Model the fold of this input.
Amino acid sequence: MTYVVTESCILCKHTDCVEVCPVDCFHEGPNFLVIDPEECIDCSLCEPECPVDAILADDDLAEDQKHFLQLNEELSAIWPVLTEIKPPPEDAGKWAEVKDKLHLLER
Done:
């Protein structure tokens, strides 16, 4: 099992999860975070830290979110590791409840 960052993170990009990760498995892109499934130790510390509930265990992914497992794997291979908490984007609150944001993901 691994944890996966899902669509809710797009354009919200809160980094509270990064601060509690004991293995530095988070990677940062322009408007999204991902978890490296090879580094994740399934500790679950990050899941409750996310204010927009964007982090789920891969076993708990809804059918329409399962593609995020592959997306996390793919992007974690090219995006840099993030080890420190950063302020969220100024408009993160505006995006917190928006659905169907995948087309807004910047690579």
In short: The helical segments are 16-20, 67-76, 92-95.
